[in-house]
Amino acid sequence: MSSLSRELVFLILQFLDEEKFKETVHKLEQESGFYFNMKYFEDEVINGNWDEVERYLGGFTKVDDNRYSMKIFFEIRKQKYLEALDKHDRSKAVEILVKDLKVFASFNEELFKEITQLLTLENFRENEQLSKYGDTKSARAIMLVELKKLIEANPLFRDKLQFPNLKSSRLRTLINQSLNWQHQLCKNPRPNPDIKTLFVDHSCGQPNGARAPSPANNPLLGSIPKPGGFPQLGAHGPFQPAPTPVAPLAGWMSNPPAVTHPAVSGGAIGFAAMLKHPRTPSAANPSMDYPSGDSDHVSKRPRPVGLSEEVNLPVNMMPVTYPQSHSYPQDDFHKAVARTLSQGSAPMSMDFHPVQQTLLLVGTNVGDIGLWDVGTKERLVVRNFKVWELGKCSMALQAALVKDPTVSVNRIIWSPDGTLFGVAYSRHIVQIYSYHGGDDIRQHLEIDAHVGGVNDIAFAHPNKQLCIITCGDDKTIKVWEATSGTKQFTFEGHEAPVYSVCPHYKENIQFIFSTALDGKIKAWLYDNLGSRVDYDAPGHWCTTMAYSADGSRLFSCGTSKDGESHLVEWNESEGAVKRTYQGFRKRSMGVVQFDTTRNRFLAAGDEFVIKIWDMDNTSLLTTIEADGGLPASPRIRFNKEGTLLAVSTVDNGIKVLANADGVRLLRTLENRSFDASRSASETVTKVVT
């Protein structure tokens, strides 16, 4: 299915939801497999609608797809089996055992035998492992927590857990725009036409419902096909009048607008367009741009000249309203300092675990790494910098460490499923650890990656294979296989040290953005054909790039050598800055760090505070002081759910801020910890007495 067809499904889902077609919405979610509605899934699990739970899951994964999927289905069927046993419905339990659970016997025969033996017990709680099984409601709630973790870690659900950020009634808006365009083609347009049907094209000059005259010979339009109601998504379109000459997108560099855009080398190919064939304007009508059938976004299509994106001519159709201003409950913002952690040296990089939302990795300016459980305030792991196998390292690294043994962490980051994490150091190497839960981290790979500092590290899945991406002072980007550490690609072309990398994918195309200290942004596919684009980043110095959580919007934040900071959103289709966010001081004291959360907010550390923007508004939304004690340009990091925000402090510590959901999460963990410690204390007391 093409990208536009996929987007149309999301528009239909939004329309069905707004019109309260609840069952149809979830049926389309399941049949398309594009969006997994976690709220609906949670409700069905809590209500014990097991057939619907499995039917809905079946649109996204099958039992034997991978280990995560197998575990998901096993937990659901085990719960259904235990509930039948709890009701003493042995015949139902046997049916579930034979029809639903037997499939797992081939993978773990001993476990299946143990489950079968529960039938012989009067109360399955006599089994030691099930002795703490409570009532049905609490058991379902506990299982649901586990299911959500498995679903979030399952690669088959990647990019299916977030609904696109759409304005309300987007499908209605597109229909209105189509009718506006049809109305413009009328020979004698009425001031207030009455639209009674969408089944045929609109025309004012004839009885409503008759087809509009063909504009094929209209000198303003040039030679174009007859207009239809909705152009086929796989075909060329849309078609629109052009009363005044307009430069096509492909020629935006030859006719630069008044607004300054970053320079482009090698032709005007946008970020997204680099992955496809560049578009060419029609020779018959140079004022029009015909997007190819596989264009990435509906928003790329040109609009009738003189019409803004959301304009509605006086066509009496379906009314659409849009909010004029944004108001946010205070619960949305991370005002409360929920935790204060003492790291001991200055944090340089932080990252929350992608599944376990309260696990925080920290890398510091002396090369230390720490792993914190924010929920319990416990530092689970601390490791000082040490080269694991110095003899295997290059002579350049060995000589550099002898001359100056000080090493800093430049970046620390979890892999997408949280089973690995990588550390990029200021001297040559990256170290990869495997994580096995609790305080169990193990050495996995040590790579002598670059000559000089390794400035950034990231994980990606090109060709469905987990890889490590690094960049460094030697002006290169390198790709390494994550299991063996084998180097797969070296990308050369930057003329300055490479500062950051941002891997991403659209549809099935994997690519990497890189930024260098001369302000150049380049983009690479996983091949040996060189960079695809060459742009100038605002500030022309230290710049990082990041996508919103749903992968639909691209942002960058950078600081110039003069201390001027720039936070911008990019128009991928044109390779131009779409909006520039306001609110930075004229001279930032250090390189500004930023992060995104919940497809809604941007945050940056500047002027001893955390600054927050709405993604759709360039004005500064609010600032957070975190009770003071922040450095001039603090390091910041949100957890995946956007409920917690970690920020570095001047006293070599970390403050963890929480919104209302984050406060509730931490209180829940505190209560569990208290209950566990109280239970242990009671056990010890009994033994002593």
TrEMBL record:
Q: Is Repeat found in the keyword set?
A: yes
Do the record's keywords include Repeat? yes
Tell me the Pfam families matching this sequence: LisH_TPL (PF17814), TPR1-like_2nd (PF21889), WD40 (PF00400), zf_topless (PF21359)
Query: Which GO terms of type biological process are on file?
Result: regulation of DNA-templated transcription
Keywords, alphabetical: Repeat, WD repeat
- In this protein, which residues make up the domain named CTLH? 34-92
Gene3D superfamilies documented for this protein: YVTN repeat-like/Quinoprotein amine dehydrogenase
In which domain of life is the source organism classified?
Answer: Eukaryota
Residue spans of the WD repeats: 447-490
Annotated spans, Disordered: 280-305
Stored SMART domains: CTLH (SM00668), LisH (SM00667), WD40 (SM00320)
What's the name of the protein? CTLH domain-containing protein
What is the organism field in this record?
Answer: Aegilops tauschii subsp. strangulata (Goatgrass)
The uppermost taxa in this organism's lineage are: Eukaryota, Viridiplantae, Streptophyta, Embryophyta, Tracheophyta
